[in-house]
Amino acid sequence: MTQKLYIISAGSFGRELYYLARGFSPRHHQHGFEPIIFLDDREDILQGKHLNGARIQEPVESHQPESSAAYLCAIGDPKIREHYAALITDRGGKFATIVSEKANCNPDNTHLKQGVIISPFCVISCDVQLGPHTFVSSHTTISHDVQSGNCCQIGSHVVIGGKAMIGNRVTIHPHATILPGINIADDATIGAGSVVIRDVHQGETVFGIPAMTVKH
Question: Location of site Increases basicity of active site His (predicted)?
Answer without folding.
Answer: 145
